[in-house]
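Quick question: what would this complex look like in 3D?
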Amino acid sequence: MVKVIVADDHEMFAQGVVSMLSSSSELGKFETAGSGKKVVELMQKEPADIVLLDVDMPDLNGEDTVEILRKIWPKTKIVMLTMHDELSYIELFMKLQVDGYVLKNTYKDELITAIKTVLANKTYFGKSALEKLKAMNKKSDEAASTEETSMLDTLTERELDVLKLTAREHSVSQIAEHLCISENTVKTHRKNIFRKLNLKNSLAITRYAIENGLI
Amino acid sequence: MYAEASYGNKILDSLWLHYDEDPEGTLLMVQEIQRNTPKDNYAIRGKSYALLGIINKMQGNFDLAMKNQLIALKYRKLVGDGEQIAGSYVNLGILKQRTSNYKDAFSYLDSAWVIAKRLKSVKYMVRVKLSLGNLWQQQDGNTEKALQCYWQSLGYLKMQPVETLKRMALMGIANVHNRINNIDSAAYYYRLLNHYYQNKNDNYFLVANYTNLGVLFSQNNNLDSATLYLQKALALGNKMGDVNLIAIIRINLCDVYSRAGKMDESYRALVPLVSNSAGLELDNMRLVFESLSNYFEKTGRFDSALVYYKKYNLLRDSINKEEKFNQVQELQAQFNNERLKTEKLAIEQERDKANVRSGRLMTITISLVAVLLIAILIGIIYRIRYRAKLMLAQKNEELHKQKLDEIFKERQIEKMTALMEGQERERSRIASELHDGIGMLLATIKHHFQMIEDEMDKNGEVYKKAFHLLDKASDEVRRISHNMASSVLVKFGLAAALRDLVETISSSEKLHIDLKLIGITERLENSVEIHVFRTVQELLGNILKHAKATKVTVQLVMHESELMLMVEDNGVGFNPVDGAKFKGMGLSNMEARVAHLDGKLEIDSLSGKGTTIIITIPK
């Protein structure tokens, strides 16, 4: 018999989840908690096999609760059940090594799949969370594979144009005319280039461009 | 006659490579080949005449060089090889430049350019550009245009590298910097080149490079280094026999010695040029005379100095007529100084006597003038005072108005700030209510809805529709609450919030957003984070609504003393002076935010050329 704790400060929502899940035969015992503190109290009485955890809660929020659960009851599975679909949240809980991450407006089937997956000692992240993570990883992979030119990667296309023209000793006004932007914008681009490549003056830009085969 | 014409061709090719080592011998060989080549072998004839022209040029015989190059051009036209024709035009252009006939030089180079461009011959395009660069530089010191030519050359060479040409371009660039006294830059390029030439044993260019470094140090008043490099150049240059190059070295050496006070050495450096000036370019001849004149002037022999200055002047362009006139006068004055001094003394003595005689009359005149003057002065003072009073009143009024304006503006900012802060609080309250209240409720309803699913007709239209609407409502609530207040901003900070914002927009809209965060490693002050985030949000909103852009770059860069936000789009742009549109786009709201942070907002937009917005906030 699998024991489940559903933690959410909205009692009605927690009850809803319980009644939805109780129709599934594998799960036997349900308890609800309105705060992180309540979760810890319930666990002290009788540890649960799985905790469905909200992020924003009074008296110990989601992340603090996860840390405590991980330390004291490492075997208990944790699935975040939250409204937050932002990458920063997903990453945070990835780092805290929760077993699953599911959005609250998900379908019943997905929640059950998540619970089953997690109970089989695997991790489950919702479809949209997975997509976001993938997009993010792809970006960081790209950055890692081109480590040598990573300084250059910080430049925008426009800055690269300005860099090349500066390297070819065009004046600010010539560059402005050439790119149809104001001189002040050109100056700002240059300032950014100096900052990003850690260069001091336009001769250094020329040197950099020659050494990196940009011109 | 050679058994095969191709044999002559081969010899010519090897001569082309080594003519600078033994010009005399090469000359004889070429004449020999010409005698032994059939008249109708245009290719060999063309090549040999071109080579003759080059050697003539090296020996300073420009007239003969021109003649030979023109013959070469004729033969090459008969052969019809475009590149070679272009080459001839370039050679002719250079010759015209060396004889100070700039107009013809431009016209020859133009002909060469047309052909090279048509053939897409990188090598010849570069040659033309390099010659043009030299021409711009020499003709009227148009260093900007010269630089442009050299850099264009390097650009073409990127497509198809030719080492020697690349070095020539670099040398051109170095020379321009040398000329405009960009010492660091010039030294950088020269050193780059020195390295090349020493490895390749390319003596001609090494001499030129040593000379240039010598000139550079001379300008920099580093006379010891200048002497060293010029002597190096002279030693190597003497072996090669380009009279004009040697002349330039000697002229510079003379100048450096003279400035170091070594007058004997200074004169000695010039002597060989005076005793044998055959083949010297006019320009260089002029410089020799100038140096001699300077030398004699410094050693106090003004008569000789004047002689050489007159010679120098004869060769000078008419552009500097006035300057020339003055300098001659000055020299003449110095020449006559001794005589004048005695004369002057005599005149002054005469004058003193006269002054004593007319003493009484003078005082009377002066006092009369003084009265008049005082009267005028007083009048002026009154008028000035009156006007000053008027102006003071005016200024006071202006100041008053300005102060009022300032107070008004400050009030407005205060009001805006209060409004914005209130707005911010209200926003997060509504957002959390939406998020936690209605959002939660909707999610709950959805779950309940699903529970009754089994007991219903699954194909029921009403059920499906209601379910779809519920989904939509829940998405909408989430979107609105995110827009109103970002919990990510509060919890994770500006960098994370911007990343999320960009992620959300670029996944739902057809807009590619490039986000760069540079040096944002720590959390910023609360108000800065909120205002910057809202500004980006508003700017992106504007771009989506008005700009029709496909690409946006958002950058947040932490500089030493300021935080800089830059948002660029490639959309339709607008005219920043257009006030109505300006306000309509919520820019005044943004201006208030920026003003609240003591920042600066700049808009750079051109109809059809996208918009760049730069916001700087002091740290």
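Answer marked as accepted. The two ends of chain B are 85 Å apart (CA to CA).
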